[in-house]
Amino acid sequence: MKVGIIGAGLSGLAAARELVAHGHEVVVIEKSRGVGGRLATRRVEGTVVDHGAPVIDAADGTELRAMIDGLSNADVIRLAADTVAYRSGATRLAKQMAEGLDVILGVRIAAVRATRTGFELAGEQGNTHGVVDAVIVSAPAPQAADL
């Protein structure tokens, strides 16, 4: 089964990884130029500034913690038993989660149209970005409302 995921925030990337782990073909489409969704890292005068979530609270035994521990590297700062941050910025987690996935950046899906064989993903310019068997919309509600 081929699944189209609209939105490359943490939820969209987690869904994609889970689906790929279960043998599905997945394409993630993100309107921004990078992954992470509302989790964003900026550099201001050489300083890392995180927007959205400067730290990630992930308790032991949770799926998120297992994912962080499985992806972690020397960039991780353990602030407390359940809290981590990334030296290079919080988007590092999203970038690690996106590794190995088919992620298309800079494309805003404006319409999802049912076809005889699945669902067509159409961009703002009317371009088709493929037909998939299923669609997951992980974009925030205000952006998803147009679909």
In short:
The protein has helices at 10-21, 63-71, 91-98, 141-144, and strands spanning 2-6, 25-30, 40-44, 47-51, 56-57, 76-80, 83-86, 102-105, 109-114, 119-123, 128-132, 134-137. The chain has 147 residues and is of the alpha/beta class. The strands form four sheets. A four-stranded parallel sheet has the order 8-2-1-12, with helices on one face. A three-stranded antiparallel sheet has the order 5-7-6.
Write structural notes for this entry.
With 147 residues, this protein is an alpha/beta fold. The protein contains four helices and twelve strands, in the order βαββββαββαβββββα. The chain has helices at 10-21, 63-71, 91-98, 141-144, and strands at 2-6, 25-30, 40-44, 47-51, 56-57, 76-80, 83-86, 102-105, 109-114, 119-123, 128-132, 134-137. Strands 8-2-1-12 form a four-stranded parallel β-sheet, with helices on one face. A three-stranded antiparallel β-sheet has the order 5-7-6. β3 and β4 (47-51) form a beta hairpin. The chain starts with a strand and ends with a helix.
